[in-house]
Design goal:
Helix content: 10-25%
Number of helices: 4
Order of helices and strands: HHEEEEEEEHEEEEEEHEEEEEEEE
Strand content: 25-35%
Structural class: alpha+beta
Distance between the termini: 68 Å
Shape: globular
Strand order of the largest sheet: 1-2-13-6-5-4-9-8
Length: 405
């Protein structure tokens, strides 16, 4: 009896040691992999979920892996293609798709496939009395091993899912400031789970908000395929989001009539219809640049991002997305690309040739007035300056800023 008790305690002790070692290892891996403000407990729980729960292997061809509409397409008036910009918070092309609607009622949201909900974040905003109130939820689905979807935000959740949350004690953070986002500081409460859902199961609903003369549907979606190798010619250490390097179009995971129904909502007519996230072209100025070293945190949110791009709605138009830094404020310069000379030159044609190129503001909307001078020094360094006036045949720097990537 006594020997049996000692044996039991020995086994329990070993089990505890293994558990402690696993948690320590997961914490270390989480710190190395995620490198964000995400609470350590959340990182550990996330990694433990991956260790303790297995998911089906993804097929090589992901077309058709989503089998149910995440939202009835009839409620969608327009889908914003990937690559939208809104500096300074979104100086780089965004990796998510925005929805627009003309419907004022509740719009049901469904699980797009048999999947596991592994993480859920409750978003809280400060009301007029200074209290944090719930305004929506971000839901993360793992469809198959390495294929992750994030949908935000659900105005409310289904009762079974609310009951699941009621049984948990979340970890919460408050006073989170997101530069470039409206609404002031927010709170976030994090739930970790392995909640199985079936394709077509109702998960919750979203409802548009009346703003001035239009309806704003607070719903956007991300998709990331972690099985796909990242571009080796991009320094991803500048990006504080591992998901960004693996982003893809959610609607490419559909097939047949469902894919056609969603794709018909994109106003873009040039491939890729769903838009493009990373636009870097090595050896040219095209793509994303940073006014600081990759070891610095949140360069983009600091206003130190700069991008020479093509518009996500009409890629025949060029745009310069400016976070600030070398200008007095964040903004955008739109231009019609040319293929000769040094004025408004197509960004993918501006190379390290010793020349200074110039871009004129179109003086419209939220454009920054004046002109922007740029010179590519090498594949990883660029000089740039904002000056008053219009571009001339010969331009010189007065006080250039350095950018890199």
């Amino acid at each position: 009896m006594k020997a049996s008790l000692y044996k039991h305690r020995w086994r329990l002790g070993i089990a505890i040691l293994v558990a402690v070692a696993l948690v320590a290892l997961v914490a270390l891996v989480a710190n190395q992999k995620f490198g964000s403000d995400e609470p350590l407990a959340k990182k550990v729980a996330k990694k433990l979920t991956q260790v303790l729960h297995t998911y089906p292997a993804c097929p090589k061809n992901l077309s058709g892996v989503l089998t149910a509409p995440l939202m009835d397409p009839e409620y969608i008036t327009v889908l914003t293609p990937l690559g939208n910009i809104n500096p300074p918070g979104h100086t780089s092309p965004v990796d998510h798709i925005y929805f627009a609607t003309g419907f004022q009622g509740r719009i049901s949201l469904f699980a797009p496939a048999d999947a596991s909900i592994t993480n859920l974040t409750e978003i809280l905003k400060v009301d007029s009395s200074g209290k944090y109130i719930s305004t929506g939820y971000v839901v993360r689905y793992v469809v198959c091993d390495g294929l992750v979807l994030d949908f935000a935000s659900y105005t409310s959740l289904s009762k079974p899912l609310r009951d699941e949350l009621a049984n948990q004690k979340p970890e919460c953070k408050y006073g989170i400031v997101k530069p470039g986002h409206m609404g002031g500081p927010e709170g976030q409460c994090y739930y970790n789970m392995n909640y199985k859902v079936k394709s077509g199961e109702e998960i919750g609903w979203v409802q548009a908000i009346q703003r001035d003369q239009s309806l704003d549907l607070p719903f956007e979606i991300w998709a990331a395929n972690y099985n796909k190798p990242t571009r080796s010619d991009v320094n991803w250490s500048y990006y504080n989001d591992n998901r960004y390097a693996h982003s893809m179009c959610t609607f490419d995971l559909y097939a047949g009539d469902l894919k056609k129904a969603f794709y018909s909502k994109f106003p873009r007519t040039i491939e890729p219809i769903c838009g493009q996230v990373n636009q870097d072209v090595v050896g040219t100025i095209q793509g994303m640049w940073y006014g600081g070293d990759s070891s610095e945190k949140d360069l983009e949110f600091q206003g130190k991002g700069l991008a020479f791009l093509h518009n996500n709605f009409d890629p025949t138009r060029g745009e310069i997305s400016i976070g600030g830094n070398f200008t007095k404020q964040a903004g955008v310069i739109m231009f019609e690309p040319t293929h000769l000379g040094n004025i408004n030159r197509e960004p993918s044609e501006v190379k390290s040739d010793g020349k200074i190129y110039c871009y004129n503001s179109d003086q419209k909307g939220w454009s920054i007035r004046g002109k922007v001078l740029v010179q590519l020094v090498d594949d990883h360094h660029m000089r740039v300056e904002h000056l008053a006036g219009s571009c001339g045949s010969v331009e010189t720097f007065q006080r250039a800023f350095d950018y890199q990537r």
